[in-house]
């Protein structure tokens, strides 16, 4: 059908240029029908990189993919076979919205390694810890609410908070983690502006993306600040067991049972493909989490839970975690060694566990704009802007050492050196203020790691 306007074909329907905007657009006929909260959904730099990083010729220092090759496959295969042989009908059936009781008991043993004592009744198994993060956000966040988080912070947490139309405000960090005084200042400023602060989100051990660890003294002080201001703490702890030497301080949940929701996962200490995580919550919140879990997925995968439970029951899983520590320690040392060799004029964090190094570039470089050159040079990284809700981190890069081999890490950092020097050469050519020192000049003095 046509009128005096122009008809545009959009697939199975036709949108006329003179019809109401509610008809949609020529790219999406349902554009004006989406809920307002979908405005917060956008592809992150991390997601966009996975397609590039999967090319075999590209050294990916981008995604935080665990080294699952360090997990003996026969251990997992044996666990799967036993589950199907002995519990097949249960494994293939719907399960509880809270999770299998035996696995919840075993999760208590995992958390005990970080000082947590709890009841299995307060554990809710989820489809990965990110699912738990989404459920907590669904329970607590209304449009316009505020979440306080470290700056930088986990990219998908920021996306989830935004999807519920909440605002993320960043708290300054240094080499010892979140700065309590900055937290106090943020709370005072936001309260004075009439804002409602619902959650304090933190990754206290080997933080993603900065790799730093919150000190014990600061953990206690931050918990006290949260209690004084009636702010629920959301402690996300995927990396806590993956320390290289000394373990991190005990979990924040170990000293505050009522003010902290603790999120854990088997993605980093077993394998992400099982998609098994959990939340440990105060009793009243636990009950709502179960209802939210059932509303979202009915029940987490019985098969995955039983396989993980069988794995924990039948092998020395602590020894396997220790094996992962050795793998990641070797790769972190390769990363630090390569940075020292190829980019000696820059600054970076030196994590004592986890997956990530946070690199600071000269202030006049933009890591996001530099990324196409990096892809051309066959190296991938994650721009620092992915980890800020306010556009910060432009001269930062998150480098992941968890997935590539030590040899590949060295190749990747050498390629990154070429990328950075190429950008500096370009700036020098068109600079109106004179020559710029490059990272080839070992005398270059970079600022300390930019964690704010």
UniProtKB/TrEMBL annotation:
Names of required cofactors: pyridoxal 5'-phosphate
InterPro entries associated with the record: Aminotransferase_I/II_large, Class-I_PLP-dep_aminotransf, PyrdxlP-dep_Trfase, PyrdxlP-dep_Trfase_major, PyrdxlP-dep_Trfase_small
GO MF: transaminase activity
CDD domains: AAT_like
Positions of the Aminotransferase class I/classII large domain: 77-416
Gene3D superfamilies: Aspartate Aminotransferase, domain 1, Type I PLP-dependent aspartate aminotransferase-like (Major domain)
Domain of life: Bacteria
Keywords on record: Aminotransferase, Pyridoxal phosphate, Transferase
Pfam families, alphabetized: Aminotran_1_2 (PF00155)
Protein name according to UniProt: PLP-dependent aminotransferase family protein
Organism, scientific name: Herbiconiux moechotypicola
Lineage: Bacteria, Bacillati, Actinomycetota, Actinomycetes, Micrococcales
């Amino acid at each position: 059908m046509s009128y005096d306007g122009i008809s545009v074909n959009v697939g199975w329907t036709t949108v006329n240029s003179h019809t109401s905007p509610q008809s949609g657009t020529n790219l999406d006929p349902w554009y004006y029908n989406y809920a307002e909260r979908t405005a917060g959904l956008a592809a992150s730099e991390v997601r966009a990189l996975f397609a590039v990083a999967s090319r075999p010729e590209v050294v990916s220092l981008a995604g935080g993919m665990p080294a699952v090759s360090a997990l003996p496959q026969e251990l997992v295969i044996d666990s799967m076979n036993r589950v199907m042989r002995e519990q097949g009908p249960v494994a293939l059936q719907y399960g509880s919205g809270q999770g299998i009781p035996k696995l919840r008991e075993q999760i208590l043993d995992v958390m005990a390694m970080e000082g947590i004592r709890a009841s299995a009744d307060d554990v809710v198994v989820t489809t990965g810890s990110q699912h738990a993060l989404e459920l907590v956000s669904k329970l607590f966040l209304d449009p316009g609410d505020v979440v306080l988080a470290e700056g930088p912070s986990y990219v998908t947490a920021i996306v989830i908070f935004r999807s519920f139309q909440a605002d993320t405000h960043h708290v300054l960090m240094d080499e010892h983690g979140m700065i309590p005084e900055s937290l106090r200042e943020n709370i005072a400023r936001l309260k004075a502006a009439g804002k409602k602060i619902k959650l304090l989100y933190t990754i206290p051990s080997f933080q993603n993306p900065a790799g730093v660890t919150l000190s014990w003294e600061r953990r206690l002080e931050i918990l006290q600040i949260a209690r004084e201001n009636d702010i629920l703490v959301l402690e996300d702890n995927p990396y806590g067991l993956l320390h290289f030497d000394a373990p991190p301080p005990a979990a924040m949940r170990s000293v505050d049972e009522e003010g902290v929701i603790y999120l854990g996962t088997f993605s980093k200490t077993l394998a992400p493909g099982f998609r098994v995580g959990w939340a440990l919550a105060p009793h009243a919140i636990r009950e709502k989490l179960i209802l939210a879990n059932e509303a979202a997925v009915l029940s987490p995968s019985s098969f995955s839970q039983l396989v993980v439970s069988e794995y924990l029951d039948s092998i020395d899983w602590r020894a396997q975690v220790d094996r992962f520590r050795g793998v990641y320690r070797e790769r972190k040392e390769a990363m630090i060694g390569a940075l020292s060799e190829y980019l000696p004029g820059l600054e970076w964090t030196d994590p004592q566990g986890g997956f990530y190094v946070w690199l600071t570039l000269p202030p006049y470089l933009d890591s996001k704009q530099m990324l196409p050159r990096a892809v051309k040079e066959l190296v991938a990284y994650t721009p620092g802007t992915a980890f800020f809700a306010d556009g910060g981190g432009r001269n930062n890069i998150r480098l992941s050492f968890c997935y590539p081999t030590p040899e590949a890490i060295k190749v990747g950092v050498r390629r990154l050196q070429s990328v950075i020097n190429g950008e500096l050469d370009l700036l020098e050519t068109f600079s109106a203020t004179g020559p710029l020192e490059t990272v080839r000049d070992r005398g270059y003095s970079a600022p300390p790691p930019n964690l704010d």
